[in-house]
Amino acid sequence: MLFHEATARALSEHGVTTVFGVLGDANLYAMDAFQRQAGGTFVSMANEAGAVLAANGYARTSGHLGVATVTHGPALTNTVTALVESVRDRTPILLIAGDTAVADRENFQNISQRDVVMPTGAGFEQVRTPRTIAEDLTTAIRRALLERRPVVLNMPVDFQWEQVTYAPLSPTWPAAQAVRPDPEVMDRAVGIVASAERPVVLAGQGAVTPDARTALLRLASRIGAPVATTLRARDLFRGEPYELGIFGTLSDQSALDTITRSDCVVAFGASLNKWTTVEGSLLKGKKLVHVDVDLLAPTRHSAVQVEVVGDATAVADALVAWLDEAEVKPTGFASPKLAEQLAGRTRHGFPDRGTDSTVDLRTALMRLESTFPEERTLVLDGGRFIHHALRILRVPEPRAYVHTVNFGSIGLGMGNAVGAAFGMPGRPTLLVTGDGGFMLGGLAEFGSAVRHGLDLVVVVLNDGAYGAEHIQLRDKGMDPAISTFAWPDLGPVATALGGQGLTVRNRAELDEALAAIEHRDRPVLVDVKIDPDAVPAPDH
To answer: What's the predicted TM-score (pTM) here?
Structure first.
């Protein structure tokens, strides 16, 4: 068969059903074959960064490999920020990148593509010859899955019409296995947990499977501990009576009070970075048992008393068994009084600063939280609003939250939202973004969402400015004019792109828009006007 047909067949035989991309002369025929001959779905995106971000959102929500494709030269350089984001997100992605022909030195799109990719932290695999495509693609997929990062498969354009003898290769990577902890290390961990009087069980992104959740709740019940999560594991314990919520800078006062009183933290699959630990202050004076399958993870951010290398489920179950054998009694830290206190938590009242022409940011988010379906996929772009959105908006499970600010960039939300809608098609996708992020990276891909008929709602919290820069200038008594923008009304723009656009200038229009969302039959954009001088600080 032809090389491009072999590429499509190899993707299909590896279980790839969806590829996000932008076509060019170096990937055009492979994607045609993938859709026509292999029965796959090619999702056309507006730009190459959006394709990689969509693959990221798809992988985060579906739990499968994300796959994207671009052509050569500027198409690949356009993906750099998205690749860095996915590397830091630890997302397994295969990016099939076309390349100029080796012999074509004069091609004006020629660039050393390996040298573009390597500084991003992504892996790089070269298709060595037309006849090695199955082997090279298998290697790239194996690396992406095992290394949990994007891997770029570099495919010269002149290979596409070469005849090859196709020999399929079965996946050779090992299945996931539970890592059992060292008994000697476990003995030390049990000693710390058994001596604790006020323990807390903390789950991170490495402990969000259903089995891990069950095991951690069993351990928490056994030792009488409340449970908390990192941001990336948010809402894992939603609905549990002793759920503290997010551990760290996003904790509410009740959670902070409980964490401060604790004397021991048993952390599973959590990076314990400066946001989770509030620069280490939340762990000060506490015993810490850190469990992770990554040998280096426990010492990456915080000093710990015991580092247990092992699978979260296996270690939690082993701790329960050891405690049972030693007849250690549970603590009373997770008491009925604490459950009552946590159940009674409400957001403190605040003076609504909305006007006839603007909406209070907190009011908009709280109304959105109460009216949008609970079974949702939530994607948050970067922006000044994000601290409030992270506290107010919830998800049914950790996999339903797509984090897009691993690189501190705005404008990465829409691409992720498109991929997330494909990765979890049974739920509506909610993207909350600022106006700067939407105009930077969302406008074109909103058109992609319309083109593919996605169940997507985009809420733009529009303060007409780069808000973080606006407040810095204000705080120093300077004129913030250079940080402001006279955007067009985004509601009519969304309608012109084929979606449903709604403009919200006050509380009454907000309620009308939220009611209209319930009857959507296409992607919806709600442009919520916010006063840049009335955005509350993150801790208010």
So the answer is: 0.94
